[in-house]
Amino acid sequence: MFRRPFWESRRDALIDIALAAGVAVGGIPILITIVSWHPAQDRFVLDVPWLLLISHVVSSATLLLRRRVPVALCLLELIAIAATPIGLLATTGTILVPADDPSGAWATLEMPFVLYSAIVYTPTGRRRIYAWMLIVALAAIAVRPWQADFGTVSGGLLFTAVPALLGLYIGARRRLIRALTERAERAEREQQLLAEQARAEERTRLAAEMHDVVSHRISLMVLQAGALRVAASDDSTRSAAEDLRSSGVQALDELRELVAVLRENPPADNENSERKDLPASLPDLSALVADSATAGIRVSLDESGNPLMISPAVGRTAYRVVQEALTNVHKHAPGTDVRVQVRYGADQVRLTVRNNAPVRPADQALSSTGSGSGLTGLRHRVELVHGSFHAGPNEEGGFAVEVTLPAYVPTAVG
Length: 414
Description:
alpha+beta; 414 residues; 5 strands; 12 helices; Heat Shock Protein 90; single chain
């Protein structure tokens, strides 16, 4: 009941409930006093007109809807106030009230709140015009200009004009605050967009420089290794030159993929054509797992799905994640069991590397090697292809690396 369509928040609901209850309870002794002082009190059938009290409680309960249907409540208030002359005519025989009548203006206790709500919660437009017309009519009836009296006029203005003017001020203030808030949020969004654009431009510039500098040097190394393989006289030198050339070619491929990811994404129209041109070969995780097994760690590999459906950049990222995770196991958890799970889906790749608690202390000389930023580098690499990365201790006393990658990452061509 504290939510839409009645109230926007619990705070609004509590305020309206407290207001309706306060007006209903506070108005009962006032009505009793008015009836007891009324000049025509002897004409009432009962000392306390229960029908009047019941109608007062019901009209007070309508304040619960003051935020939703303020114009309709103004119309109901006008109908209720118009019934006052009819009641006077039925009880006293005349609609004219003596000047010393303690009832003062023809108004109810909930009228100020209804008029205030009509100004604050009615949007601009035709309904706002209707609200003002009803407010003017209520003010005229409350002031009773045909029977002018200082108490009547002042009381009528207090019950009608003051809450309407207060509503004008509060409504204008809220609109100003809302406009300033929207302007600040828009400026913040524009600043974020400008920052993202600056980062994208910087990434593109770095990608171009890295491609121009690093690829040139590696290409020279590959050419020199190829020339050495042709010119070498013994098989061992030719084999070493071929290995060097193959490693250089692989490094160029990886560099090309990384530079393509750093650059701006191509249009969506080229996405399907690029997927068709994906190479059939991806980094082999089984060979990586086998290398770790020969180093004294029991590693199990569980792959499911079709790895040929993912883009090369994602495949190489998954390979680097497994490689770094197994390297950390070698350093910090010797002799433990490792489980590598890879799930290739249609839209994403889920990768998990878990190990149990280490069975013997780590070699300090080995664990102290490296820069200490392997997991940070992995996180950056995963986020580069719009993936998610999580690493931390698991319930088995070991460590777990969990990565989710998109199946396809568009890259810039050229």
